[in-house]
Amino acid sequence: MPKLTIDGIPVEAPEGATVLQAAELAGIEIPRFCYHERLSIAGNCRMCLVEVKPGPPKPAASCALPVCEGMEVFTNSEMARAARKGTIEFMLVNHPLDCPICDQGGECDLQDETVLYGEAASRFREDKHAFADKDLGPLINTRFTRCIHCTRCVRFCDEIAGVPALGMIGRGSSCEIMPWEEGVLQTELAGNLVDVCPVGSLTNRPFAFRARSWELTKTDSIDIMDAMGSSVRIDSRSNEVLRILPRLNDAVNEEWIGDRSRHFIDGLLERRLDTPWARVTRGAALRSVSWEKALEILRERVEALGDAPKVGVIAGDQTDLETLTAAKDLCAALGSPNMDCRQDGARLDASVRAGYLFNATIEGLDQADAILLIGSDPRKEAPVLNARIFRRVRNGQAAVARIGVPTDLTYPVTELGNTPGEALAALRAGTHPFAEVLRSAKHPVIIVGQGALRREDGAAVLNAARDLADALGVVREGWNGFSVLHTAAGRVGGLDLGFVPGKDGLDAGAMVQALGSGSLDVLILLGADEFDTSALANRSTRDALVVYIGSHGDAGAAVADIVLPGSAWTEKTATWVSMEGRVQRTLRAVSAPGAAVEDWVAVARVARALGHALPFSSVEDVRARMAAINPLLGTLWTLTPAPWGAPFGTEGAVSAEPFTPAVPNYYMTCPISRASRTMAACVEALSGTEDERTGTDG
């Protein structure tokens, strides 16, 4: 490795590293605008100029200069300081003097570097060159007069998002960034453009002018709008969440998050359940009541059903482990085996952990050289994960094939058709060329999506995928490429906890049908809305009781007899398990509104009303019980690989019925995002039609 000195400090840098990267190894910061660690080198801004010896007597751009043996670098010499002052001066020639009203104020790299390296006054008196703002959709404000032509946004679209939506046109002082098409950017990662922009040229439209950065309370947390468990920061003020930003986590989301995870936040205040609701008499409309009255009605209705009512519990996609633990103990106290965390009917076996984890891990995709997608659309199900796959394909390091609906994943895909049984059989027999691609790969990956599992033959598909993994060597010593891509943040935790039907118990679909036909007496919905609720709305007997515990008035609340207000995930400190099997915890950023409580508390109150007080006096008691059920759930931030071991799934024929998308609408997948006006604006911008109203709205 080349050895050099930077400001007199000896540094040994990897072969091919640049001077700027070597300086970072030495703990020396060199200012920059166009350089970004995850983007290609452009060398546009010239802010990173340094003096280098030996070499010509002029400053050199450190971001594009490879290190050499014996090189001497001076980052703070008179030549370097003068060069930076000149660079800043030229950047400010056409930059508007709108810092006091710029919504990037306080977080602007140009503002900071000008204070450190700029002059107090400009020598230029000419008129400034202005540019028209462009329409990039409902998520991004544009002020291209502020643009310094660093091209970070262009490179992000090309190299990370995989959607070449922006480019630079013109020459000299007429250069400007332009979208190739006016309107919303066709990517689920558009919000990250605001993060990479070093000036106020691209800003967060929903957040614009609502608060200054120094006014915000910042809370480190975990995103649960998909199953990746991305690291995020929640910015709030006066008990209102105003912004969500990604946090650096190379093992999961690097420094990106999807647009839904970033911009759903206005939905936290819409359609909120902040007080209990109940049908005081059978068949009556829901009306607002106190907690005491709601629990009294619950007790009376259940007592009217007889001595041993049949009870079932369905957990929603965003149900935390504390709530699932309390609900599991409630079912045990009632003697009910009817519980399920798979409201969409996914045929996942909770007894074999390797059968439902993303075993390759998200970071492991950086090694993948052959990927088979089975009933999965990672672009809509996990856009940040899809960006990792795109990077491998773009660099020529991986080949991707798909069994499923042909959609644009931003990278080339070998289509194996959407006849699952036939395609899987051809790969198993080795008659399709991609079978050899998987077999010869060093790190092959099979990704099974929820579109393949939430069918009648879902267990057979899972079994066929496992057989394929064994036959083609996808699982081998030191590598397990068999991965299930989840869309629900609470799913893996529910399976780890064993929140599935017990002996002779009913699954989610059977519980809905049983209550609709009158063979189940009480159904408790824990934020469960992602299923067809018509059977509950049209149930044959009104004696059957539906209790909904959740934060938003959506489809489940609309058919319930008793609605108890819970907390959204930003309003509680709760535990979740990512699709990799990583146990993580969100931190409360704001308080729940009105009479809403944490969901496990609501479950405990229901249990007490039914005469079965749970032995929990605090959340620590719940977590101790959770760890007693499964010790893995008591260890935070640890990724424990699952042994391949026992078979999972069910033998049987895979039907020829085509796979259907698990996430048909990326922007609206849960009660919170369906309540968001920003998400509705995204849907309208992309489709030209307004979303259909759901839940309790008129």
Description of the structure:
The chain has 698 residues and is α/β, with parallel strands linked by helices. Among the domains are: 3-91, Ubiquitin-like (UB roll), CATH 3.10.20; 359-485, Dimethylsulfoxide Reductase, domain 2. It contains 22 helices and 28 strands. The strands form eight sheets. A seven-stranded mixed β-sheet has the order 14-13-26-25-24-15-16, sandwiched between helices. The protein has a five-stranded mixed β-sheet with strand order 2-1-5-3-4, sandwiched between helices. A five-stranded parallel β-sheet has the order 19-18-17-20-23. The model is unreliable at 689-698 (pLDDT under 50).
Provide a quick synopsis of the model.
The protein has 698 residues and is of the alpha/beta class.
Which terms would index this structure?
Ubiquitin-like (UB roll); seven-stranded mixed β-sheet; five-stranded mixed β-sheet; alpha/beta; 28 strands; disordered C terminus; 698 residues
List strands and helices in order, with pairings.
Layout lengths: L2 E4 L2 E4 L6 H7 L23 E5 L6 E2 L10 E3 L3 H14 L17 H9 L22 E3 L9 H10 L4 E4 L6 E4 L12 H5 L5 E3 L12 E6 L8 E7 L2 E7 L12 H5 L13 E2 L8 E2 L2 H13 L7 E5 L5 H14 L4 E2 L29 E5 L3 H4 L1 H12 L4 E5 L10 E2 L4 H10 L3 H8 L3 E6 H4 L4 H14 L3 E2 L2 E2 L1 E4 L5 H7 L10 H10 L4 E5 L7 H4 L7 E6 L4 H4 L3 E4 L9 E3 L5 E3 L13 H11 L9 H11 L41 H5 L1 H11 L11
Parallel strand pairs: 1-5, 15-16, 15-24, 17-18, 17-20, 18-19, 20-23, 24-25, 25-26
Antiparallel strand pairs: 1-2, 3-4, 3-5, 6-9, 7-8, 10-11, 11-12, 13-14, 13-26, 21-22, 27-28
Helix pairs in contact: 2-3, 8-19, 8-20, 11-14
Pfam family, one: NADH-G_4Fe-4S_3
Keywords: 2Fe-2S, 4Fe-4S, Iron, Iron-sulfur, Metal-binding, NAD, Oxidoreductase, Quinone, Translocase
GO molecular function, one term: NADH dehydrogenase (ubiquinone) activity
